[in-house]
Amino acid sequence: MRKILIALLLLSTFFVSYNGSTKEKDEATVSHTDTLKQENPNTKQDTLKPVFGYRFVINGDFDGDGKKEKLIEHFVSGIDNKETNKFYEGLTDYEQLIELTVKKNPISFVVSDNKRIDTLHIFSGGQQLGLSYLKNEGDLNGDGTDEVSYVINWADQSNINTWHLVSYKNNKWTEIYSFPIWDWQLPDLPQTCNQYELFGLDNKIINTNNDTVNIRLEKELINFKGLVKKIKTNKIQVIFMNEAAEEDTMIVDLKQLK
How many domains does one find in the chain? Predict the structure, then answer.
């Protein structure tokens, strides 16, 4: 009975279709007009010290030319089109972080140092803080290119998220599969991360100014095996959240998704 209640609570906030397509979080399109009208007079944005936040960089052969290239995460303000900070030092009010983030109209994307590879557009505007995960999965489908997994770091209080699997085909990035996950399945990011509980965010923003801690967190992030495992060409095993809101595994045939 407890599992059923948890499932109903979680699934009432997020609907997922398991045929390879998903709905992103509704919170990303919320304007938060009422929140913006009620600014905290004791904590102005111009008095807060910005924290740049972690940016992912991965290597691989993403276009199949036999040469390695980099993919680099960018988090840009839509106000001035400049790279911007994700967090603020000393800010512990997560609702205010959402407010400040929405004001920036942020744009998240990934670019390659190989100019012939098109930009991987993550999300424009709304409640998002860039990426909470980015990984080179290797060549999963045997086409000679490395596939990429990514997860968006939504600026909301839900811990339900979506894992995206994309491939660079015909000179553009194409999503080949996605599945539902929990944010707490991912490792913490260096510099600044969010504290999650079973049902969602614990309203705690953890700032790690200690270099030793950040080095450890980055090592854990690099060593994290992810939630996708190649079984053989065109067959993968994924760890996902099933309809009963339980952690589960399944085998996915990528050929059947074409």
Answer: 1
> Which helix (DSSP H) or strand (DSSP E) does residue 222 occupy?
helix 211-223
3-class DSSP state for residue 2?
A: helix
**For the residues of 52-92, what is the DSSP string, one character each?**
-----EEEE-SSSSS--EEEEEEEEETTT-SB--SEEET--
pTM of the complete model: 0.79
Q: What does the pLDDT look like over 237-251, one tens digit per residue? A: 999 999 999 999 999
Query: Quick check: helix, strand or coil at residue 146?
Result: coil
pLDDT tens figures, 207-246? 566 678 778 888 999 999 999 999 999 999 999 999 999 9
Helix (H/G/I), strand (E/B), else coil: 162: strand
DSSP state of 36: H
Q: Domain of 77?
A: 2-257
